[in-house]
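Extended Data, panel c. Modelled sequence:
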Amino acid sequence: MEKMLTRLTTMSLIFFFFFSTLVADKSQGFSRSLSPEALGLKKEKLSHLHFFLHDIVEGEKATAVRVAEAWMTNTSMTGFGFLAIMDDPLTEGPDLGSKTVGRAQGMYASAAENEFALLMVLNFAFIEGKYKGSNLSLLGRNEVFSAVREMPIIGGSGVFRFARGYAQAKTHKITVESSIVEYNVFVYHY
C-alpha cells in the first residue's frame, strides 16, 4: 500500500508540474517567449547603406522648417531651443538630381547651450530597391561641426525589423540655404 501511495504521489507531482508548465506558458497574459523562427526570421545579417541627405532650409522647395523656438533662441550663439521638422530627400550621390532612394522624415532640435549639437529623431524611409517600404529609426546627438558624427540606429520596420546599428554622418557641403550630409549606415537586421 505504501508503495502504491508513493507511486500515486510521484505521478500526481509529475502530472501537476507538467500541467502547470502547460498552463503557465499559455496564461502569461500580455507576453510570451518566442523563437525568431516563429516570426519567420532567418539568419541575422549586417548591411551597409550609403546615401546623401539634402536638408533644404530656405526657398520655395524647403524640406526642413522651423516650427518652434524658445524665448532665448534668437540670442543664443547655438540657436538653443529651436525645433525643426524635416522631410529631406535621400539620394545615391551628392547631387540633388541623382537617384532618390528615400526620405529622412522626423525632427531635429538645438539641444546644447554651449556648442552646436542637435537632437535627431528621424526615420530613413526607403522608396527604392530591396529596401522599398522599409524604414530605419535614428535617435541621437549630432555634433554638427565634428568631422564625422555617430548616431545610433534604434530600430526599423519591413526588411529592417529588429534593426540595430549606427549611422555616421559627414557634412559634404553647407550653405545658408541647405546642407548635404553623407551617411554611412551599418545595421544588423534579419
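Residues 91 and 100 are 4 Å apart (CA to CA). This feature is highlighted in the accompanying rendering.
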